[in-house]
Amino acid sequence: MLRSVGMKLGGTVPDVPKVILLGTPHTSNWDLILAMGMRFALGLEYKWMMKKEAFFFPMAGTFKAMGGIPIDRKAAKDVVGQIADWFDANEKAWIGITPAGTRTKVESYKKGYLRIAYATGVPIFVVGVNSETKTLVFDQFIDLTGDIDVDNARVRDFVRSHYTGLKPENS
């Protein structure tokens, strides 16, 4: 599937039972198709979060079958608790999050992914889109300082210096 759209995989898939996969930069609707292509090509099982408004008929059933979790962004405080409970209840638990929270260009990422990592102790691993080389890259774990603003800026700076999304103007 990835080859059919001219993309390839790079890097090393993390060998951990629980992880937060940061899919970034998120600049196009094609990102979901690439993520699903990656998931199927490697036989990975992971859940991913998307705004609940996208889970309408007939897509809701398809998205859920593909691992989608509808998120009510107006109830953001409860999301961290729900995901923390999900991590606690599962021996193997991977979840994909796009930290920008949108396909448009943003100056800083939303911080929910960090709140989830802090609450659960689950590591964060960057999966980057490199549109120049047409590669989805399993890159690296992010060391956290515990300072949410510092960590968020470090992640954003790392992504900006290493990756360009499918729509570079939105990266």
Structural notes for this entry:
The protein has one domain. The chain is 34% helix and 23% strand. It has five helices and seven strands. A seven-stranded mixed beta sheet has the order 1-7-6-2-5-3-4, sandwiched between helices. Helix 3 runs parallel beside helix 4. Keywords: Acyltransferase, Transferase. One of its GO terms (biological process) is phosphatidic acid biosynthetic process. InterPro entries: Plipid/glycerol_acylTrfase.
Give me the secondary-structure topology.
Elements: E1 8-11, E2 18-24, H1 30-42, E3 47-51, H2 59-65, E4 68-71, H3 76-89, E5 93-97, H4 112-120, E6 124-130, E7 135-142, H5 148-162
Helix pairs in contact: 3-4
Pathway: Lipid metabolism
InterPro entries: Plipid/glycerol_acylTrfase
Pfam families: Acyltransferase
Pick out its properties:
7 strands, alpha/beta, 34% helix, 171 residues
Structural class: alpha/beta
Shape: globular
Compute the gyration radius: what is it? 15 Å
Unreliable stretches? none
The string of secondary-structure elements, in order, is EEHEHEHEHEEH
Query: Which strand order spans the largest sheet, edge to edge or round the barrel?
Result: 1-7-6-2-5-3-4
What's the end-to-end separation, in Å? 24 Å
Approximately how much beta-strand content do the residues carry? 15-25%
Keywords: Acyltransferase, Transferase
GO molecular function, one term: 1-acylglycerol-3-phosphate O-acyltransferase activity
Pathway: Lipid metabolism
Domain Phospholipid/glycerol acyltransferase: 19-132
